[in-house]
Amino acid sequence: MGSRSPSAAVPDSPGGLVPFMDTDSVSSDADILSHVSRGDREAFAELYDRFGDRVYGVCLKVLANRDLAADVAQDVWLQIWHNSSRFDATLGTASGWVLRQAHSKAVDAVRSAEASRRRLHVVGQREAVVRPETPADIYADAEEAQSVRTCLDSLTELQRQAVNLAYYRGMTGREIAAQTGSGLSAIKTRIRDGMLALRRCLASYE
């Protein structure tokens, strides 16, 4: 079975006392859940023996990743340990309740992963350095290229470094920040101010 036993992660029952349950005398899943809700670790182990494979199977079907399914299944069992008192036999079977916990937890994991990917995509777009044009695009011939070099030399060292890395090496703001050890906002400011100064300088050659 791919799932890991959750017993090590399950806390002791209140007061450190673990109620005894003779599992041989308990025949229904609902009875076992009732004992689990009272902190019976033996009942919990019995429930795991009955449903461990199926809980893992539900998680694997939703997540399609064995390692992730095993991790989520572990969370499912902790959730069952803490929330077993919420089971209501008048609303359905114990087995259905257990497997719904697994399905719900797995779906939540998928949604969380998708939300994280969307956030990273948005952040990446925001942090990408927008380069509408490069100095070489603005002044292409040899004479004007010399003007560009002269104006680049007139920038501060930090502005010149940021502009060169962004426009001549094609690096993003995040990459420049990582290479130089500076903050991303500082890099964006240097590029913006550097390009404004460069434009003003180049305008004087027109």
Notes on the structure:
- The protein is mainly alpha-helical.
- It folds into two domains: 29-124, RNA polymerase sigma factor, region 2, helix turn helix motif (Rna Polymerase Sigma Factor, Chain: A), CATH 1.10.1740; 140-205, Arc Repressor Mutant, subunit A.
- The protein has helices at 29-37, 41-63, 66-83, 94-127, 135-138, 142-154, 157-168, 173-180, 184-203.
SSE order and pairing:
Blueprint: H1 29-37, H2 41-63, H3 66-83, H4 94-127, H5 135-138, H6 142-154, H7 157-168, H8 173-180, H9 184-203
Protein name: Sigma-70 family RNA polymerase sigma factor
Family: Belongs to the sigma-70 factor family. ECF subfamily.
GO biological process, one term: DNA-templated transcription initiation
